Amino acid sequence: MNARGATLQGDKLVLSGVAPNSILFADRPVRAAGHALTAHVLEEWSPANEDKDSFAKDPPNATVSAFSRDGSVIRDSVVVLKNPKLDGDRLTFDVQVLEGDLAGADGPASIFIDIIGRPWTPLSFAGAARRTALRGAWYRGAAAAAAYHPYGYPPYDPYHRPPCGYYPYPPCY
After folding, report:
1. Which residues pair with 109 in a beta bridge?
2. Containing H/E element for 111?
3. Is the CB of residue 98 less than 8 Å from the CB of residue 78?
4. Tens place of pLDDT for every residue, the chain, 173 residues?
5. Are strands 32-37 and 21-26 parallel, antiparallel or unpaired?
6. Quick one: which of 39, 59, 74, 163 has the fewest CB in 10 Å?
7. What is the DSSP string of 123-153?
């Protein structure tokens, strides 16, 4: 999620100027990237979400990175994100700060949600393909890969080597 600014005071994280779309990405089991409406991503914290892996039941860790307006300062904070409230372009989370702060960062900010170890969560490749396939957009053949390998995992082949040695592939080593 991207925003024009972020403040972290006590147990509240406030993002102002939140973008209406959020970027989603995964590198395992298939590299994929895409976007979904921020409002759809926030539905994963909904108490009505019955999924045992929902963010309401198991809140995710995230890194909040924010710049100063002139770009000379970058601040990071690792938090647990809970109970989002979206009001126009202002997004407020209850948080548990694990480390860091955003002091001196009054410029653009981004949140990177950590879903490692949660393979079926909504923002993992499998979960995002399952939940947002019709509401978002995926790039780089992710939809085709999901259709070919319905669970996202390619078949195991211990002797498989990626193509190399001729254009457009890299050299073989």
Report:
1. 3, 66
2. strand 109-114
3. yes
4. 999 999 999 999 999 999 999 988 777 667 778 888 999 999 989 988 888 778 888 899 999 999 999 989 999 999 999 999 999 999 999 999 999 999 989 999 999 987 654 544 444 444 444 444 444 554 444 444 455 545 545 555 555 666 666 666 677 66
5. antiparallel
6. 163
7. TSHHHHHHHHTTTSEEETTHHHHHHHSTTSP
